[in-house]
Amino acid sequence: MDSFELNKIVAAILMVALLIIGISKLSSVIFYVEKPKTPGYSVEVEETTVKDADTSLQASEEKIDIAALISMGDLDTGEKVFKKCAACHSIVKGGKNNIGPALYNVVGRKVGVVNDYKYSKALSGYGKEWTFEELNGYLLKPAKWIKGTKMAFAGLRKEKDRASVILYLNQNSDNPLPLP
Question: Could you give the C-alpha distances from 77 to 82, 97, 131, 161, 171, in angstroms and in order?
Fold first, then answer.
């Protein structure tokens, strides 16, 4: 490549740069925009108090009529929905602990007491029993109901699914509790 060709390439690059700079300067002269003294807009918002999410979740769950909730469920649906749980839990009598503890006889049992299973500190120190209300709250959102649990399940949003699983868990027991 001779020097004449090289000069044409450099001149083309300089011409493009000057053209871009020139267009920028020319457009700022033609389309002049006066900047405001204070940038942004003032938005007036009413102040509202926000309830703590954890207490509102537990409070809303305590207000649920558990008898009405349980009446929504049925055993066949509970067995189908429990298949999500069966990936980590066994439900048969004398079943072994898997990723999660065995759930036979769980309704009415104290939380975190299955032998040969290492519970999180949150569950082992919870100190309550698995009542219908506790199971309903826990199945809704385990991580929010008992903070610090190592159960990574997202929860069952549908009330009918929760009620059906609770009925199914209660049925799989030596002494099923009477329904509320």
Answer: 8, 24, 20, 7, 13
Dihedral of CA 54/56/61/62: which sign? positive
Query: Model pTM?
Result: 0.64
Does residue 124 contact residue 136 with C-beta atoms inside 8 Å?
no
Per the domain annotation, does 97 fall within a domain?
yes
CATH code of the domain covering residue 150: 1.10.760.10
Q: Work out how many domains the chain is built from and give that number.
A: 2
Question: Quick one: the chain helix, strand, coil %, rounded to 5?
Answer: 50, 0, 50
pLDDT digits (tens, 9 = 90+) for 153-173: 888 989 999 999 999 999 999
The verdict on 101 and 158 lying in the same domain is: yes
Determine the Cα–Cα distance for residues 143 and 122; give it in Å rounded to an integer. 10
Which candidate, 177, 119, 142, places its Cα nearest to that of 58? 142
Per-residue pLDDT tens over the stretch 81-116: 999 898 899 999 888 988 999 999 999 999 988 888
